[in-house]
Write a structure and sequence with these properties.
The chain has about 190 residues and is of the alpha+beta class. About 45% of the residues lie in helices and about 20% in strands. It is built from 5 helices and 7 strands.
Length: about 190
Amino acid sequence: MTQTDHDDAAPAPASAVPTEPVRDPPAPPPTYASGEWQRLPARAIPLCTIDISLSLAFVFGIAGTIVGVLTLGRYAGLASGLAGALFGAGIGMWIGFRRYRNTLWRLDDYGFAVRRGVAWQRETLVPLTRVQHLDLKHGPLQRMRRLSTLVVHTAGTRHSAVSIDHLDADDAQRLRERLGRQLDHEDDDAR
């Protein structure tokens, strides 16, 4: 066998130097542009819809059962109660999705703002100078979806607080840190 026959038959030797697998660079943390209105993350949709859906399903189910039993009889009343519950759940999901879509927040040089509502829009602005302390809350369903509730307590009456549910947990932490730094700067300036 000649040298060329041997080279064709055998595969080329692998490089002796181990190569590391090519890895994508770590993704930068999500950021928000200061001063622009931000939406809640899409993974908050189920949590925005579940409470109103269950409430309306219960109310419409009971109403459907009562009306059905009184007008059509016992078994038809149960069927109308089920239909009412499904109708209520559907209406609740629609309302919850609209609530999700129309809840916005913003942090700029003036303060923290929250905008809610469709027909009756409500915008709340908390000036940075009025922030007293900040809380982050994480319920079990929120922890499963990496969400949290930011509560901004303000100067004023006993119940002065602005909360926004179902924020991205990282965004909520950054908001708390940024608003907290503002509190620290104000404390330093006051001394």
